[in-house]
TrEMBL record:
Organism: Sulfuracidifex tepidarius
Domain Cas12f1-like TNB positions: 79-145
Family the entry assigns: In the C-terminal section; belongs to the transposase 35 family.
Domain of life (superkingdom): Archaea
Annotated GO MF terms: DNA binding
Pfam families given in the database record: Cas12f1-like_TNB, OrfB_IS605
Lineage: Archaea, Thermoproteota, Thermoprotei, Sulfolobales, Sulfolobaceae
Protein name: Transposase
Domain (Probable transposase IS891/IS1136/IS1341) ranges: 2-64
Length: 195
């Protein structure tokens, strides 16, 4: 639609028609995204007493990033919106959001603490050269964030795979797991998965 707009003559009736349609479409996508973020943040606050997250400075990330594509992705990720929704909902519900220093959360081995300095953004799997721990990069980082935020020894945050709600499902279908589960921290949690 954007392309067909650039082909139309500025100011013509067709141009106006398509421009209005485009504005509506952008608005619609924005609303879907807000709705989605509302649902995810409500779900998180319902499920957990404490939420640990990296204290990322979005503004600084955007300004200091050399990659134009990455800058665009950061800006479009709605991360600031997510953080603000989560913070006010947590406060209202009496939950705690703990911000963790984001330095080396991805580069540190969650099992032995080795810092892998040459990890790049393309490395989706974390492989520790020291202890042999192999894990999804984000899972490894989430364990480090959990550890730093809670001060607890490393244990999986959840027995189930990490929450993943496809965008379309989050918006159009009933949200999973509305019931608040009793917190089960520690206890007989299995050791960190995948060796
Ligand atoms: Zn290791």
């Amino acid at each position: 639609m954007q392309r067909s707009l650039t082909r139309k003559k500025r100011g013509s009736r067709n141009y106006e028609k398509i421009r209005k349609k485009l504005v509506k479409l952008h608005e619609h996508v924005k609303n879907l995204m807000s709705d989605y973020i509302h649902k995810v943040t409500s779900w998180l606050v319902e499920q957990y007493d404490e939420i640990y997250m990296e204290g990322l400075d979005v503004k600084e990330m955007v300004e200091n990033n050399e990659s134009k594509t990455l800058r665009k992705h950061i800006l479009h990720s709605n991360f600031s919106k997510f953080m603000s929704y989560l913070s006010y909902k947590a406060e209202r519900a009496g939950r705690r959001v703990v911000k963790v220093n984001p330095a080396y959360t991805s580069r540190t081995c969650a099992r032995c603490g080795y810092v892998k300095k040459d990890l790049t953004l393309d490395d989706r799997i974390f492989v520790c050269p020291k202890c042999g721990w192999v894990a999804d990069r984000d899972y490894n980082a989430s364990l480090n964030i959990f550890h730093a935020g809670s001060g607890l020894p490393l244990k999986p945050v959840d027995r189930k795979p990490l929450l993943y709600i496809p965008f379309s499902e989050g918006v159009y279908s009933k949200f999973p797991g509305r019931s608040r589960k009793s917190p089960s921290r520690g206890g007989d949690a299995p050791s960190v998965r995948a060796g």
